[in-house]
Amino acid sequence: MLSYRHSFHAGNHADVVKHTVQSLIITSLKEKEKPFLYLDTHAGAGRYQLHSQHAERTGEYLEGIARIWQRDDLPEELRPYMQAVKAWNMGDQLRYYPGSPLIARHLLRAQDKISLTELHPSDYPLLRNEFLKDERARVQRADGYLQLKAQLPPQSRRGFVLIDPPYELKTDYQAVVSGIQEGYRRFSTGVYALWYPVVLRQQIKRMVRELEATGIRNMLKIELAVLPDSDRHGMTASGMIVINPPWKLEEQMKRVLPWLHRALVPDGKGHASVEWIVPE
């Protein structure tokens, strides 16, 4: 069942929101000198060619990163993310999109650690090759959910866990809840960021209820919709559920998400929201 390839979707509106949140969390964690672990459970290939056959077939990046790539009015909250994207491109030509592992690699410090897992047989070698010379990084072909048990808590007792499964299987919606519960039991002070797609709204409502039922507190939901909810095939929205968010993240996203909605959705459809599922 490992058929999902993020190369078809790299740089789309969901990536823009996901990687904005990721960049702001990393930037906040760097405000303290003590090192931390960045754990990416479903890391993908690392880097994506935007003029590849896959990306050109869908053209999703044209309604995502391409819409803000050369804007001269970027909010301050987007600067860490955009600096990471521009680091992988020369001049004004947008050729590559860095996935979450390469965004983390650009933003993390020498003392921080990177742990990446990917199961896809084509993506794993590409990811491994990206990090061959990075002494901070550990790259494995392994089940990402199991890392929430195997690698937590980190030695530094500081960490950021990004959980970004393909949701190729319906069981992923339950697996992410179980994984977070397992990780939180071992490492309750870590920052956890869960990405989700909205294909059927009922699936997300059910997942949120299950997360609430875990008893975990301090849970923030950030969502950008490009279309109204629908029962038709296709993703209408996506979001991030962040547990133990840095104290600035709520206000940062309340400032930048409406700007992203205007930039990415010129017709004004959909919505942008930042709200607490469970407060602290």
Q: What's the SSE blueprint?
A:
Blueprint: H1 13-29, E1 37-40, E2 47-49, H2 53-58, H3 65-68, H4 79-86, E3 96-98, H5 100-107, E4 113-117, H6 123-130, E5 137-140, H7 144-150, E6 159-163, H8 172-186, E7 191-198, H9 201-213, E8 219-225, E9 237-243, H10 249-264, E10 271-278
Parallel strand pairs: 1-4, 1-6, 4-5, 6-7
Antiparallel strand pairs: 2-3, 7-9, 8-9, 8-10
What does this structure look like?
GO terms for molecular function: 23S rRNA (adenine(2030)-N(6))-methyltransferase activity; RNA binding. This protein has a single domain, classed as Rossmann fold, CATH 3.40.50.150. The model has no long low-confidence stretch (mean pLDDT 93). With 280 residues, the chain is of the alpha/beta class. The chain has 10 helices and 10 strands. The strands form 2 sheets. Strands 5-4-1-6-7-9-8-10 form an 8-stranded mixed sheet, with helices on both faces. A two-stranded antiparallel ribbon has the order 2-3. Helix 1 packs antiparallel against helix 10.
Structural class: alpha/beta
**Major sheet strand order:** 5-4-1-6-7-9-8-10
CATH topology: Rossmann fold
Mind describing the biggest β-sheet? 8 strands, mixed
Strand percentage, roughly?
15-25%
Q: Overall mean pLDDT score?
A: 93
Share in helix:
25-40%
Order of helices and strands: HEEHHHEHEHEHEHEHEEHE
Radius of gyration: 17 Å
Query: What is the CATH class name?
Result: Alpha Beta
Rounded to the nearest angstrom, the distance between the terminal CA atoms is 38 Å
